[in-house]
Task: inverse folding
Protein backbone atom coordinates (compact mmCIF):
# COMPACT_ATOMS: atom_id res chain seq x y z
CA UNK A 1 0.00 0.00 0.00
CA UNK A 2 1.36 3.41 -1.03
CA UNK A 3 0.20 6.31 1.14
CA UNK A 4 0.40 9.92 -0.06
CA UNK A 5 -0.54 12.94 2.05
CA UNK A 6 -0.79 16.44 0.60
CA UNK A 7 -1.09 19.51 2.81
CA UNK A 8 -3.41 22.20 1.44
CA UNK A 9 -2.51 25.27 3.45
CA UNK A 10 -5.32 27.47 2.18
CA UNK A 11 -7.73 24.78 1.01
CA UNK A 12 -11.35 25.47 1.89
CA UNK A 13 -12.83 23.28 4.65
CA UNK A 14 -16.51 23.62 3.81
CA UNK A 15 -18.35 22.28 0.79
CA UNK A 16 -19.64 25.65 -0.35
CA UNK A 17 -16.90 26.38 -2.89
CA UNK A 18 -17.53 26.77 -6.61
CA UNK A 19 -16.12 23.99 -8.84
CA UNK A 20 -15.48 26.65 -11.47
CA UNK A 21 -13.30 28.73 -9.12
CA UNK A 22 -11.10 26.17 -7.38
CA UNK A 23 -7.83 28.13 -7.78
CA UNK A 24 -9.46 31.20 -6.20
CA UNK A 25 -12.31 30.88 -3.72
CA UNK A 26 -11.49 27.28 -2.84
CA UNK A 27 -7.91 28.09 -1.76
CA UNK A 28 -6.00 26.38 -4.56
CA UNK A 29 -8.15 23.27 -4.31
CA UNK A 30 -7.17 22.70 -7.97
CA UNK A 31 -3.69 21.70 -6.77
CA UNK A 32 -5.17 19.03 -4.50
CA UNK A 33 -7.53 17.78 -7.20
CA UNK A 34 -4.57 17.23 -9.53
CA UNK A 35 -2.78 15.37 -6.73
CA UNK A 36 -5.76 13.02 -6.33
CA UNK A 37 -5.81 12.36 -10.07
CA UNK A 38 -2.03 11.76 -10.18
CA UNK A 39 -2.32 9.38 -7.21
CA UNK A 40 -4.78 6.98 -8.82
CA UNK A 41 -4.90 7.07 -12.60
CA UNK A 42 -3.12 4.84 -15.03
CA UNK A 43 -4.06 4.98 -18.68
CA UNK A 44 -6.66 2.23 -18.65
CA UNK A 45 -6.49 1.15 -15.01
CA UNK A 46 -6.78 2.49 -11.54
CA UNK A 47 -4.17 2.20 -8.78
CA UNK A 48 -6.20 0.32 -6.15
CA UNK A 49 -3.22 -0.03 -3.77
CA UNK A 50 -2.99 3.70 -3.02
CA UNK A 51 -4.43 5.89 -0.29
CA UNK A 52 -4.33 9.66 -0.76
CA UNK A 53 -4.89 11.98 2.21
CA UNK A 54 -5.67 15.66 1.76
CA UNK A 55 -4.95 17.75 4.85
CA UNK A 56 -7.08 20.88 4.51
CA UNK A 57 -6.06 23.90 6.55
CA UNK A 58 -8.08 26.77 5.07
CA UNK A 59 -11.22 28.61 6.16
CA UNK A 60 -13.77 28.17 7.72
CA UNK A 61 -13.54 24.89 9.66
CA UNK A 62 -9.91 23.66 9.68
CA UNK A 63 -8.32 21.26 10.08
CA UNK A 64 -9.91 18.39 8.18
CA UNK A 65 -8.46 15.30 6.54
CA UNK A 66 -10.06 13.69 3.50
CA UNK A 67 -8.95 10.14 2.72
CA UNK A 68 -9.27 8.67 -0.78
CA UNK A 69 -8.92 4.87 -0.61
CA UNK A 70 -8.14 3.32 -3.99
CA UNK A 71 -9.50 -0.04 -2.96
CA UNK A 72 -13.05 1.26 -2.58
CA UNK A 73 -12.98 4.48 -4.60
CA UNK A 74 -15.80 5.15 -7.06
CA UNK A 75 -17.04 8.06 -9.17
CA UNK A 76 -13.57 9.55 -9.72
CA UNK A 77 -12.59 10.67 -13.22
CA UNK A 78 -9.19 12.19 -14.08
CA UNK A 79 -10.41 15.79 -14.49
CA UNK A 80 -10.12 18.39 -11.74
CA UNK A 81 -13.85 18.93 -11.41
CA UNK A 82 -14.43 15.26 -10.69
CA UNK A 83 -12.08 15.20 -7.71
CA UNK A 84 -13.41 18.61 -6.68
CA UNK A 85 -16.94 17.29 -6.65
CA UNK A 86 -15.99 14.39 -4.33
CA UNK A 87 -14.14 16.83 -2.07
CA UNK A 88 -17.19 19.11 -1.93
CA UNK A 89 -19.35 16.17 -0.86
CA UNK A 90 -16.85 15.14 1.83
CA UNK A 91 -16.75 18.70 3.17
CA UNK A 92 -20.55 18.88 3.32
CA UNK A 93 -21.11 16.18 5.95
CA UNK A 94 -20.71 16.56 9.74
CA UNK A 95 -17.29 15.44 10.98
CA UNK A 96 -15.79 14.10 14.20
CA UNK A 97 -12.38 12.68 14.98
CA UNK A 98 -13.14 9.33 13.28
CA UNK A 99 -13.33 8.89 9.51
CA UNK A 100 -16.84 8.99 8.09
CA UNK A 101 -17.54 7.96 4.49
CA UNK A 102 -19.06 10.60 2.22
CA UNK A 103 -19.00 8.64 -1.07
CA UNK A 104 -17.57 5.16 -1.77
CA UNK A 105 -13.86 5.23 -0.93
CA UNK A 106 -13.87 8.84 0.30
CA UNK A 107 -13.93 9.62 4.03
CA UNK A 108 -13.45 12.73 6.12
CA UNK A 109 -12.60 13.56 9.71
CA UNK A 110 -11.18 16.36 11.84
CA UNK A 111 -7.39 16.39 11.98
CA UNK A 112 -4.27 18.23 10.88
CA UNK A 113 -0.62 17.63 10.11
CA UNK A 114 0.21 16.95 13.77
CA UNK A 115 -2.34 14.12 13.80
CA UNK A 116 -1.54 12.38 10.54
CA UNK A 117 2.24 12.38 11.04
CA UNK A 118 1.72 10.24 14.15
CA UNK A 119 -0.21 7.64 12.17
CA UNK A 120 2.16 6.82 9.32
CA UNK A 121 5.95 6.96 8.93
CA UNK A 122 5.85 9.56 6.16
CA UNK A 123 8.97 10.47 4.25
CA UNK A 124 8.96 14.09 3.09
CA UNK A 125 8.93 14.62 -0.65
CA UNK A 126 10.99 17.77 -1.15
CA UNK A 127 13.38 19.01 -3.83
CA UNK A 128 16.12 19.40 -1.21
CA UNK A 129 16.09 15.70 -0.26
CA UNK A 130 18.07 12.65 -1.32
CA UNK A 131 17.69 11.63 -4.96
CA UNK A 132 14.99 8.94 -5.05
CA UNK A 133 16.93 6.94 -7.66
CA UNK A 134 19.76 6.42 -5.19
CA UNK A 135 17.57 5.03 -2.39
CA UNK A 136 17.73 1.27 -2.15
CA UNK A 137 14.45 0.60 -0.34
CA UNK A 138 11.76 3.16 -0.89
CA UNK A 139 9.36 4.15 1.90
CA UNK A 140 5.67 3.43 1.38
CA UNK A 141 4.37 6.72 2.83
CA UNK A 142 5.10 10.24 1.59
CA UNK A 143 3.94 13.68 2.64
CA UNK A 144 4.21 16.76 0.47
CA UNK A 145 3.03 20.32 0.41
CA UNK A 146 0.77 22.17 -2.02
CA UNK A 147 1.99 25.33 -3.81
CA UNK A 148 3.27 26.74 -0.48
CA UNK A 149 6.25 25.51 1.52
CA UNK A 150 5.79 23.64 4.78
CA UNK A 151 5.52 26.14 7.67
CA UNK A 152 8.18 26.20 10.42
CA UNK A 153 5.74 24.42 12.76
CA UNK A 154 5.14 21.71 10.15
CA UNK A 155 8.89 21.43 9.57
CA UNK A 156 9.32 20.77 13.28
CA UNK A 157 6.64 18.07 13.15
CA UNK A 158 8.47 16.48 10.21
CA UNK A 159 12.00 16.83 11.65
CA UNK A 160 14.03 13.64 11.49
CA UNK A 161 11.97 12.11 8.66
CA UNK A 162 13.64 10.96 5.47
CA UNK A 163 13.68 13.76 2.90
CA UNK A 164 13.41 12.50 -0.66
CA UNK A 165 13.67 14.40 -3.94
CA UNK A 166 12.34 13.24 -7.31
CA UNK A 167 14.50 15.62 -9.33
CA UNK A 168 16.63 18.77 -9.47
CA UNK A 169 13.79 21.26 -10.04
CA UNK A 170 11.04 22.43 -7.69
CA UNK A 171 7.92 21.02 -9.34
CA UNK A 172 4.21 20.96 -8.57
CA UNK A 173 2.99 18.44 -6.02
CA UNK A 174 0.99 16.45 -8.58
CA UNK A 175 4.02 16.24 -10.85
CA UNK A 176 6.12 14.95 -7.93
CA UNK A 177 3.52 12.21 -7.31
CA UNK A 178 3.67 11.23 -10.99
CA UNK A 179 7.47 10.92 -10.94
CA UNK A 180 7.32 9.00 -7.65
CA UNK A 181 4.87 6.52 -9.19
CA UNK A 182 7.18 6.15 -12.18
CA UNK A 183 10.12 5.20 -9.96
CA UNK A 184 8.01 2.71 -7.99
CA UNK A 185 6.49 1.25 -11.20
CA UNK A 186 9.96 0.77 -12.68
CA UNK A 187 11.23 -1.07 -9.63
CA UNK A 188 8.08 -3.21 -9.47
CA UNK A 189 8.49 -4.19 -13.12
CA UNK A 190 12.22 -4.84 -12.80
CA UNK A 191 13.18 -2.01 -15.18
CA UNK B 1 13.82 24.03 -27.46
CA UNK B 2 11.66 21.08 -26.44
CA UNK B 3 8.68 20.43 -28.71
CA UNK B 4 5.69 18.34 -27.58
CA UNK B 5 2.73 17.47 -29.79
CA UNK B 6 -0.41 15.83 -28.42
CA UNK B 7 -3.08 14.38 -30.71
CA UNK B 8 -6.64 14.91 -29.47
CA UNK B 9 -8.65 12.45 -31.52
CA UNK B 10 -12.08 13.67 -30.42
CA UNK B 11 -11.16 17.18 -29.27
CA UNK B 12 -13.66 19.82 -30.31
CA UNK B 13 -12.49 22.20 -33.07
CA UNK B 14 -14.79 25.13 -32.38
CA UNK B 15 -14.77 27.45 -29.41
CA UNK B 16 -18.35 26.75 -28.40
CA UNK B 17 -17.58 24.11 -25.76
CA UNK B 18 -18.39 24.49 -22.08
CA UNK B 19 -15.38 24.86 -19.74
CA UNK B 20 -17.37 22.94 -17.14
CA UNK B 21 -17.85 19.95 -19.45
CA UNK B 22 -14.45 19.45 -21.05
CA UNK B 23 -14.37 15.64 -20.57
CA UNK B 24 -17.77 15.32 -22.27
CA UNK B 25 -18.94 17.84 -24.85
CA UNK B 26 -15.43 19.07 -25.63
CA UNK B 27 -14.15 15.59 -26.58
CA UNK B 28 -11.79 14.95 -23.68
CA UNK B 29 -10.32 18.44 -23.94
CA UNK B 30 -9.44 18.00 -20.23
CA UNK B 31 -6.68 15.59 -21.29
CA UNK B 32 -5.15 18.22 -23.57
CA UNK B 33 -5.46 20.93 -20.91
CA UNK B 34 -3.49 18.80 -18.46
CA UNK B 35 -0.85 18.24 -21.15
CA UNK B 36 -0.47 22.00 -21.62
CA UNK B 37 -0.08 22.48 -17.87
CA UNK B 38 2.45 19.63 -17.60
CA UNK B 39 4.42 21.09 -20.52
CA UNK B 40 5.06 24.48 -18.97
CA UNK B 41 4.76 24.61 -15.19
CA UNK B 42 7.51 24.37 -12.64
CA UNK B 43 6.75 25.18 -9.04
CA UNK B 44 7.66 28.84 -9.13
CA UNK B 45 8.80 29.19 -12.71
CA UNK B 46 7.66 28.66 -16.24
CA UNK B 47 9.41 26.56 -18.88
CA UNK B 48 9.99 29.20 -21.54
CA UNK B 49 11.98 26.86 -23.80
CA UNK B 50 9.00 24.61 -24.62
CA UNK B 51 6.49 24.59 -27.45
CA UNK B 52 3.36 22.48 -27.06
CA UNK B 53 1.21 21.65 -30.10
CA UNK B 54 -2.34 20.32 -29.75
CA UNK B 55 -3.59 18.53 -32.86
CA UNK B 56 -7.38 18.64 -32.66
CA UNK B 57 -9.30 16.12 -34.72
CA UNK B 58 -12.87 16.31 -33.38
CA UNK B 59 -16.05 17.94 -34.64
CA UNK B 60 -17.01 20.29 -36.27
CA UNK B 61 -14.04 21.82 -38.14
CA UNK B 62 -11.06 19.43 -37.99
CA UNK B 63 -8.16 19.36 -38.29
CA UNK B 64 -6.66 22.28 -36.39
CA UNK B 65 -3.34 22.77 -34.62
CA UNK B 66 -2.96 25.05 -31.61
CA UNK B 67 0.59 26.05 -30.72
CA UNK B 68 1.52 27.18 -27.19
CA UNK B 69 4.91 28.94 -27.27
CA UNK B 70 6.51 29.18 -23.86
CA UNK B 71 8.65 32.12 -24.87
CA UNK B 72 5.66 34.40 -25.40
CA UNK B 73 2.91 32.65 -23.44
CA UNK B 74 0.72 34.72 -21.11
CA UNK B 75 -2.47 34.24 -19.10
CA UNK B 76 -1.87 30.52 -18.46
CA UNK B 77 -2.43 29.16 -14.94
CA UNK B 78 -1.92 25.50 -13.99
CA UNK B 79 -5.61 24.59 -13.69
CA UNK B 80 -7.53 22.89 -16.48
CA UNK B 81 -10.00 25.74 -16.98
CA UNK B 82 -7.17 28.19 -17.64
CA UNK B 83 -5.75 26.17 -20.53
CA UNK B 84 -9.31 25.43 -21.67
CA UNK B 85 -10.09 29.12 -21.81
CA UNK B 86 -7.06 29.84 -24.02
CA UNK B 87 -8.03 26.91 -26.28
CA UNK B 88 -11.59 28.26 -26.58
CA UNK B 89 -10.23 31.63 -27.67
CA UNK B 90 -7.92 30.02 -30.23
CA UNK B 91 -10.81 28.00 -31.66
CA UNK B 92 -12.99 31.09 -31.94
CA UNK B 93 -10.93 32.97 -34.53
CA UNK B 94 -10.88 32.35 -38.30
CA UNK B 95 -8.06 30.04 -39.39
CA UNK B 96 -6.00 29.44 -42.51
CA UNK B 97 -2.94 27.31 -43.14
CA UNK B 98 -0.60 29.80 -41.42
CA UNK B 99 -0.47 30.27 -37.63
CA UNK B 100 -2.49 33.19 -36.35
CA UNK B 101 -2.14 34.43 -32.77
CA UNK B 102 -5.27 34.33 -30.61
CA UNK B 103 -3.71 35.40 -27.29
CA UNK B 104 -0.03 36.09 -26.46
CA UNK B 105 1.93 32.91 -27.16
CA UNK B 106 -1.06 30.94 -28.45
CA UNK B 107 -1.60 30.49 -32.21
CA UNK B 108 -3.88 28.37 -34.34
CA UNK B 109 -3.99 27.11 -37.90
CA UNK B 110 -5.49 24.39 -40.05
CA UNK B 111 -3.49 21.17 -40.06
CA UNK B 112 -3.39 17.60 -38.85
CA UNK B 113 -0.97 14.85 -37.94
CA UNK B 114 0.19 14.42 -41.55
CA UNK B 115 1.20 18.10 -41.62
CA UNK B 116 2.98 18.44 -38.30
CA UNK B 117 5.03 15.25 -38.65
CA UNK B 118 6.67 16.77 -41.74
CA UNK B 119 7.74 19.84 -39.78
CA UNK B 120 9.61 18.34 -36.81
CA UNK B 121 11.53 15.09 -36.28
CA UNK B 122 9.18 13.82 -33.58
CA UNK B 123 10.02 10.75 -31.57
CA UNK B 124 6.93 8.83 -30.49
CA UNK B 125 6.29 8.65 -26.75
CA UNK B 126 4.74 5.23 -26.25
CA UNK B 127 4.88 2.61 -23.52
CA UNK B 128 6.13 0.04 -26.05
CA UNK B 129 9.26 2.04 -26.90
CA UNK B 130 12.86 2.02 -25.71
CA UNK B 131 13.37 2.98 -22.06
CA UNK B 132 14.19 6.70 -22.00
CA UNK B 133 16.81 6.19 -19.29
CA UNK B 134 18.87 4.03 -21.65
CA UNK B 135 18.95 6.57 -24.50
CA UNK B 136 22.22 8.46 -24.66
CA UNK B 137 21.10 11.55 -26.57
CA UNK B 138 17.47 12.46 -26.17
CA UNK B 139 15.46 13.88 -29.07
CA UNK B 140 14.06 17.39 -28.68
CA UNK B 141 10.64 16.68 -30.25
CA UNK B 142 8.02 14.18 -29.06
CA UNK B 143 4.54 13.29 -30.22
CA UNK B 144 2.01 11.45 -28.10
CA UNK B 145 -1.64 10.52 -28.17
CA UNK B 146 -4.50 11.48 -25.87
CA UNK B 147 -6.57 8.79 -24.11
CA UNK B 148 -6.93 6.88 -27.40
CA UNK B 149 -4.23 4.99 -29.26
CA UNK B 150 -2.79 6.32 -32.50
CA UNK B 151 -4.91 5.13 -35.44
CA UNK B 152 -3.42 2.80 -38.09
CA UNK B 153 -3.15 5.77 -40.48
CA UNK B 154 -1.28 7.79 -37.85
CA UNK B 155 0.95 4.80 -37.11
CA UNK B 156 1.87 4.71 -40.80
CA UNK B 157 2.70 8.42 -40.71
CA UNK B 158 4.93 7.80 -37.68
CA UNK B 159 6.58 4.62 -38.98
CA UNK B 160 10.34 4.64 -38.67
CA UNK B 161 10.42 7.24 -35.89
CA UNK B 162 12.16 6.53 -32.62
CA UNK B 163 9.72 5.03 -30.10
CA UNK B 164 10.51 6.01 -26.53
CA UNK B 165 8.91 4.84 -23.29
CA UNK B 166 9.05 6.66 -19.96
CA UNK B 167 8.14 3.59 -17.90
CA UNK B 168 6.62 0.12 -17.74
CA UNK B 169 2.97 1.18 -17.32
CA UNK B 170 0.60 2.81 -19.81
CA UNK B 171 0.05 6.23 -18.25
CA UNK B 172 -1.87 9.38 -19.15
CA UNK B 173 -0.31 11.72 -21.71
CA UNK B 174 0.19 14.52 -19.18
CA UNK B 175 1.92 12.13 -16.79
CA UNK B 176 4.23 11.00 -19.61
CA UNK B 177 5.17 14.65 -20.26
CA UNK B 178 5.94 15.13 -16.55
CA UNK B 179 8.24 12.09 -16.45
CA UNK B 180 9.91 13.18 -19.71
CA UNK B 181 10.62 16.61 -18.22
CA UNK B 182 12.06 14.92 -15.12
CA UNK B 183 14.53 12.92 -17.21
CA UNK B 184 15.58 16.00 -19.21
CA UNK B 185 15.86 18.12 -16.03
CA UNK B 186 18.08 15.49 -14.41
CA UNK B 187 20.43 15.36 -17.36
CA UNK B 188 20.54 19.14 -17.60
CA UNK B 189 21.44 19.39 -13.91
CA UNK B 190 24.03 16.61 -14.08
CA UNK B 191 22.06 14.32 -11.73
Result:
Amino acid sequence: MLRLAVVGHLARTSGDFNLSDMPGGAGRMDVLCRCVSASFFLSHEFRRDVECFLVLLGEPDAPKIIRFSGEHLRYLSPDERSAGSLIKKALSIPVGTEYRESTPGVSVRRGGVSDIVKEYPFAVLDEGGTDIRTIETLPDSYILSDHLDFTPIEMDLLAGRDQISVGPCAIHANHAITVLHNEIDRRGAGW
